[in-house]
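Hey L., structure's done. Input below.
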Amino acid sequence: MTTTEAPTTCSTVSAADLPLTIFEKSKTGRRGVRPPPAEVPDVDPASVLPKHALRADLAELPEVGELDAMRHYTALSTLNFAISNAFYPLGSCTMKYNPLVNERVAALPGFGPLHPMQSDDQAQGALELFWRLEKILASIAGLDAVSLHPTAGAHGELTALMCMRKYLDENGGAHKKVILIPDSAHGTNPASCTMTGFTTRELKSNARGRVDMDSLEAVLGDDVAGLMITNPSTLGLFEPNIKLICEKIHGVGGLVYMDGANMNAILGRTRPGDFGVDVMHYNLHKTFSQPHGGGGPGAGPIAVTSKLAPYLPVPKVEKDGDRFRIVRSAEHSIGTTRGFLGNFGVVVRSYTYIRSLGDEGLKRVADNAVLNANYLRAKLGKSYRVWVDESCMHEFVATAKGLPNGIKATDIAKRLIDYGIHPPTIYFPLIVPEALMVEPTETESKETLDNFVRAMEAIRAECDDDPEMLKHAPHTRSIGRPDEVAAVKNPRVIV
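Output:
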């Protein structure tokens, strides 16, 4: 349910209330469609297939009418929470609004049916789109070259570190093995370092959630290969010393990698290349509206300075006169890190989004994302403690630590489900105990934000008045609080 008032009663849904599965609806011999007789002779499968490839029994498929099949899949779709249903307070990380015009463009005859094995001559429009998007992303970043190869943010990290490693190896930096990582960093950062042969050294945050400059000085040395930094940070804070930090890393011969997951907040307002970043990745789903959630598809293009450009992966698109061609090898390239050029449909959607908005529109994205986040920070700061209570960028982090009656972040997240609102990110970043990360994105209306505030305020009142209600939420779903560890290890999918 979606409501602006606290539910007065929350009855638990029993097993008897659940819709029948499609197998329970099945009746022997029932059909939705009866195909006409085949116009070819029957073939004995045993005459053309090896014995091990033949079924011993008939497939256990449900036998239902067309209407029951339609209702089954429609009912399944209603079990999913989507941005088309209600508010996601973790919008830019998981599900921000994806304009439908992007889907129309991605499905155009020259794009949707395109096969990756088609020749360059048959894919000139697609190759031009790749080439143009690379130029646009490079300009937005203030960097010199882009690879659309990586297919996720973590893949972009890995690819960037591979380029850094090869550049250092070929330019007198083979002895450099240490990557500095702030303590607020995403967990994929150290994983990517390990996979590319680096070790990590933690960089402490100060009381305001930024890089502690004294800590930085203490860990600098000739063994430092570079720094991985998210800016704005996972606390939703812009790093005011970012230019000085980059200069210090460059001073010891290192490179600066910026996790661009939060570019949503600074589009058109500042460029990473201008404050000293050597390489960064984009998340096209976070910043440029490619649909995401449930594991993908994704894209994590990287932008680099000219000195790192020769090391970008192949294949890549080059312009040759008024034509475009795929280059499949390059002298200094790290090589191929995935099949073909990248996730093409993702690229088309993001290109459409950028061209639809234009330069001024991208600035409005950043402005509205920051405005919405600060509005919620100010409103919710009256009921919840904001970890660093100052102007934020596109997101802020509150904490459930210290709430009465032992209420945890999990309890608040689960209770929001009863209000028809998806829970925010919780327990991240790790430096904030009982963290609640709220990121509304640029597209949500004031009315939607106000509804979220009312729900959060009602939940805060329940912390005092009815804590057991929170500790057993949600009450409006067929499943309340599963054993999440067991669910990951032994998933049971209901079809």
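The chain has two domains: 102-356, 359-476. Residues 1-16 have pLDDT under 50 and may be disordered.

-- N.
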